[in-house]
Amino acid sequence: MSTAQVQKATTIAVPLSVGAAAAVALGVYGRVHDPAGVAINIAGFSSFQSVKTWLATLAAVLGLVQVASAYALYHGRPQVAPLHRWSGRAAVAVTLPVVAHCLYALGFQYGEPRVLIHSLLGCFFYGAFVAKMLTLSRTDTPKWLLPVVGGALFTALIGLWLTSALWFFTTFGVIR
């Protein structure tokens, strides 16, 4: 293998490996620490489950903005770049209280399939986020890597929404 091939492989392997390590670390932490069962509630909501549900819904909507603005960027519309950056920042920001609650209060659970899938997707989401941020900061990555990692991030977010917010809405209703 030539030096150029090794360097090209490294530009792909490093962000993906660090992202995978972040996902595994979150899963291990969530599994080995004793879940507190308690989290901070936010005024105006009946439970932290409601808060998590609505924050996850907001993150999913912002994720859709991310996909639409990424599509526009790749098709020569640089004026949407600020929308893309800020909707991404906001999407991740609204997931932080959710992940803090999930990891601290609940931990990594696997008692039923929906919960196991949700736990795996949560770890994968933040691993994909780390990989995307590392891919963004490099100028030598292949052009296809960023959309693939971004697509994985969006897919994980929608999977998380389906296994949490949609489940909550169909089980308890939209207003609780």
Describe this structure in words.
This protein is mainly α and 176 residues long. Helices cover 76% and strands 0% of the residues. The protein contains six helices and no strands. It has helices at 3-32, 48-74, 81-106, 113-136, 145-163, 165-172. The N and C termini lie far apart (60 Å). The relative contact order is 0.18.
Topology:
Elements: H1 3-32, H2 48-74, H3 81-106, H4 113-136, H5 145-163, H6 165-172
Helix pairs in contact: 1-4, 2-3, 2-5, 2-6, 4-5
Count of helical stretches: 6
The string of secondary-structure elements, in order, is HHHHHH
Shape: globular
- Mean pLDDT across residues: 92
Oligomer: single chain
Give the CA-CA distance, first to last residue. 60 Å
* Strand-pairing-aware structural class: mainly alpha
Computed over alpha carbons, the radius of gyration is 18 Å
How many beta-strand segments?
0
Low-confidence stretches: none
Q: Helical amount among residues, as a percent range? A: over 70%
Q: How much of the residues is beta strand, in percent?
A: under 5%
Largest sheet: none
Summarize this structure briefly:
The protein has helices at 3-32, 48-74, 81-106, 113-136, 145-163, 165-172.
Task: Please supply descriptive tags for the structure shown above.
176 residues, mainly alpha, 6 helices
